[in-house]
């Protein structure tokens, strides 16, 4: 799916977006950069998804285990909150790779994008110029897009886990 995402981001980022079509955008990308622009952002996407999935599973497992030890294992709202918190924390930890992905997609097709390390180092250095700790935090929060979307992902993961548990229980009866 990454080639389609690359075309979509390139198409949306053009001033004449809507005057062309997806096929002409893809042809332009190929003329300017060959096959490479279609896979820009793939490694950042894979890394982001691995970090998200890994940390979600770890947090969920550890928090559910803590709930079991305190005899709250059957509490439906506790399980929902565990999944919500796990989803939010995993989103926050994977957000730097989402930022890298967005920078890669914003890179014109005829230019080689900077490495993830270069992108994150620049983000960190710029944040350090923002004066107070609160200003630095707000800068990072804004650039890493940590906010309502993070809460939405957490709610989605919690709701998805609830639906999965319901369907699993329903099909085993």
Descriptive report:
- The structure is a single chain.
- It is built from 7 helices and no strands.
- The model has no long low-confidence stretch (mean pLDDT 90).
- The protein starts with a helix and ends with a helix.
- The relative contact order is 0.12.
- α5 runs antiparallel to α6.
- The chain is mostly helical and 173 residues long.
What global shape is seen? globular
Number of helices: 7
How would you characterize the largest beta sheet? none
In terms of DSSP E residues, the strand content is under 5%
- The count of β-strands is 0
- Mean pLDDT across all amino acids: 90
Q: What is the helix/strand order?
A: HHHHHHH
**Over the alpha carbons, how many angstroms does the gyration radius reach?**
20 Å
Structural class: mainly alpha
Could you tell me how far the N terminus lies from the C terminus, measured between alpha carbons in angstroms?
37 Å
Helix content: over 70%
Uncertain stretches: none
């Amino acid at each position: 799916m990454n080639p389609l995402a690359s075309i979509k981001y390139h198409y949306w980022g053009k001033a004449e977006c809507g005057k062309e079509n997806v096929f002409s955008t893809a042809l332009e990308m190929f003329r300017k950069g060959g096959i490479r622009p279609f896979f820009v952002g793939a490694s950042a996407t894979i890394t982001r998804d691995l970090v998200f999935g890994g940390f979600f599973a770890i947090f969920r497992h550890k928090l559910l285990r803590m709930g079991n030890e305190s005899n709250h294992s059957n509490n439906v709202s506790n399980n929902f909150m565990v999944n919500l918190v796990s989803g939010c924390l995993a989103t926050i930890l994977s957000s730097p790779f989402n930022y890298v992905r967005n920078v890669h997609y914003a890179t014109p097709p005829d230019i080689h994008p900077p490495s993830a390390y270069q992108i994150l180092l620049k983000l960190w250095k710029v944040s350090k110029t923002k004066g107070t700790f609160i200003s630095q935090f707000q800068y990072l929060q804004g650039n890493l897009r940590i906010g309502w979307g993070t809460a939405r992902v957490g709610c989605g993961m919690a709701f998805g886990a609830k639906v999965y548990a319901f369907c699993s229980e329903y099909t085993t009866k």
